[in-house]
């Protein structure tokens, strides 16, 4: 088990980020989706927690077959996805599952990711925000800088570089060296990430690889949330939820999956006895042994989606303004 805490600051308030996060996730998922790949939204519905109150439950299938490294593709079936379940009680969210009775996959029998997130209006200086005395073992704390930390070259977009971006609506940016110490407003996303892969000979390699992927995703997603601020700034929660629904429908249509040959067992909602309900990246299950194939042949990728995704409902609202 490898536990790390990530702290990512943004030149936003937590209330602003609540809208920006929903917009960014929806738009990014749409841009990254292609035929048979990307993020498919299975469920997105309100959920009530006895401790945290009203929130939103989402279940997504993240299709990964062609995005895995060669050494991982060699031990996974041709049709491969993980199920991501999340409970959002903003400013507190949970993604993942640590329950021992969760569905297990025959080729990844002991793999789990658990992410606990808290958002605060500060520069990341809150100590022991996750009450580390309840965490088994020590964990590393990493500050991620959306402006100056490196991201994989294939994900770099000059228009999404906070060092050069300036918001026309808010006047924020570009971000300079040391921006966290003098920028107002500022908020921080605290994420405690636990990755567990209990397979002898592969544990360290897989757990480190997953943390590297999560780090890159966090940096890219938060860079986009800030540099897309002029697109979502001013939207109400009702408007961003409508955008989310319409974009999810468009994304699912792009993925256009044929009925998968590998099914996923259902996992129930967290029970009322859980103050922090767990969720479960699970992997597809099958009654028969998976059909292991060689890495898929390379295929041409779709061209990138436009920088701004305008859906009919938003287009009409923009015209009215």
UniProtKB/TrEMBL annotation:
<keyword id="KW-0446">Lipid-binding</keyword>
<protein>
    <recommendedName>
        <fullName>Cytoplasmic phosphatidylinositol transfer protein 1</fullName>
    </recommendedName>
</protein>
<dbReference type="InterPro" id="IPR001666">
    <property type="entry name" value="PI_transfer"/>
</dbReference>
<dbReference type="GO" id="GO:0035091">
    <property type="term" value="F:phosphatidylinositol binding"/>
</dbReference>
<comment type="function">
    <text>Catalyzes the transfer of phosphatidylinositol (PI) and phosphatidic acid (PA) between membranes. Binds PA derived from the phospholipase D signaling pathway and among the cellular PA species, preferably binds to the C16:0/16:1 and C16:1/18:1 PA species.</text>
</comment>
<comment type="similarity">
    <text>Belongs to the PtdIns transfer protein family. PI transfer class IIB subfamily.</text>
</comment>
<dbReference type="InterPro" id="IPR055261">
    <property type="entry name" value="PI_transfer_N"/>
</dbReference>
<keyword id="KW-0813">Transport</keyword>
<dbReference type="GO" id="GO:0005634">
    <property type="term" value="C:nucleus"/>
</dbReference>
<feature type="compositionally biased region" description="Low complexity">
    <location>
        <begin position="269"/>
        <end position="284"/>
    </location>
</feature>
<dbReference type="InterPro" id="IPR023393">
    <property type="entry name" value="START-like_dom_sf"/>
</dbReference>
<feature type="region of interest" description="Disordered">
    <location>
        <begin position="268"/>
        <end position="321"/>
    </location>
</feature>
<dbReference type="GO" id="GO:0005737">
    <property type="term" value="C:cytoplasm"/>
</dbReference>
<feature type="domain" description="Phosphatidylinositol transfer protein N-terminal">
    <location>
        <begin position="1"/>
        <end position="249"/>
    </location>
</feature>
<keyword id="KW-0445">Lipid transport</keyword>
<dbReference type="Pfam" id="PF02121">
    <property type="entry name" value="IP_trans"/>
</dbReference>
<dbReference type="GO" id="GO:0008526">
    <property type="term" value="F:phosphatidylinositol transfer activity"/>
</dbReference>
